[in-house]
Amino acid sequence: MARLPDLEGLAIFAKVAECRSFAEAAAELRLSKATVSKAVSRVEARLGARLIIRTARRFELTDAGRLLVGRAAHILSEGETAEDVAKAQARTPSGLARLTAPMSFGMLRVAPLLPEFLSAFPDISIDLHLSDAMMDLIGEGFDAAIRIAVQPGASLVAQRLCEMPRHLVASPAYLDKHGRPRQPLDLSQHRCISYSYTMTTEIWRFTKGSKSVSVRPSGPLRVNNGDAMLPALIAGIGVGILPEFLLGEALQSNQLERLLPDWSIPPGAVHWVTPPEGPLPKRVEVLGKYLIEKLAQG
């Protein structure tokens, strides 16, 4: 495989030819004179031709140098332009922001906020991917994620926005038919609807003072989305645990009832999550600031 061109050496050579001085080129590039001299010598060695004749009183390009300098100057100019464009984009909120969020929370809480944001930042576009699976931000090219979790991932940068309480619920019709659990262990005798997007079995954990109880639910239905669980709960198919933002209307209308209210279920939390390395593009920074402010207000 051929070696890559020495783009840095060619750009330095172009700056030396432009300034007609190694010392002035070094000053403009903020490099040492020795570094500049070595870069030009490196290009000469690679090409097998001398590019510059220099003495105490003379600076002159050789034939090879004159032949090369135009293309080298183009490399320098294109590199400077590319950096300027990248810096401008980093400072100006524009371009595509790829965001992932849980399906139900994304539909109910995130998506309604986006029209206002897009009106305020018309040069930004958003690719919103809704899924309850734990997406690989870096591997799948996402700029950021909204996650509901106890721990959103140790390798990522996460900002906690607010708690997301979860409740054990069932319909009055189910409770009339199957009875009301009095303690977490009673759930082993009940039809449980599990919420999980992994292949492992879900475990329900409850605490009360110093007591801690874990229950492995079993029952007729296991789903990977809270909205899909809700109709089954209302229809009396079983008992289940859902986040509070999905339960508000069903609880207020008495379609569902909270169970074991004196036992606590570890709450999840809403997090703004970004990859761990480097500064964020301006478009992602302003989107994050906007969503953090809106979602933290509840």
TrEMBL record:
<feature type="domain" description="HTH lysR-type">
    <location>
        <begin position="5"/>
        <end position="62"/>
    </location>
</feature>
<dbReference type="InterPro" id="IPR005119">
    <property type="entry name" value="LysR_subst-bd"/>
</dbReference>
<keyword id="KW-0805">Transcription regulation</keyword>
<dbReference type="Pfam" id="PF03466">
    <property type="entry name" value="LysR_substrate"/>
</dbReference>
<dbReference type="Pfam" id="PF00126">
    <property type="entry name" value="HTH_1"/>
</dbReference>
<dbReference type="InterPro" id="IPR000847">
    <property type="entry name" value="LysR_HTH_N"/>
</dbReference>
<dbReference type="GO" id="GO:0043565">
    <property type="term" value="F:sequence-specific DNA binding"/>
</dbReference>
<dbReference type="GO" id="GO:0003700">
    <property type="term" value="F:DNA-binding transcription factor activity"/>
</dbReference>
<dbReference type="InterPro" id="IPR036390">
    <property type="entry name" value="WH_DNA-bd_sf"/>
</dbReference>
<dbReference type="GO" id="GO:0006351">
    <property type="term" value="P:DNA-templated transcription"/>
</dbReference>
<protein>
    <submittedName>
        <fullName>LysR family transcriptional regulator</fullName>
    </submittedName>
</protein>
<keyword id="KW-0804">Transcription</keyword>
<dbReference type="InterPro" id="IPR036388">
    <property type="entry name" value="WH-like_DNA-bd_sf"/>
</dbReference>
<dbReference type="InterPro" id="IPR058163">
    <property type="entry name" value="LysR-type_TF_proteobact-type"/>
</dbReference>
<keyword id="KW-0238">DNA-binding</keyword>
<comment type="similarity">
    <text>Belongs to the LysR transcriptional regulatory family.</text>
</comment>
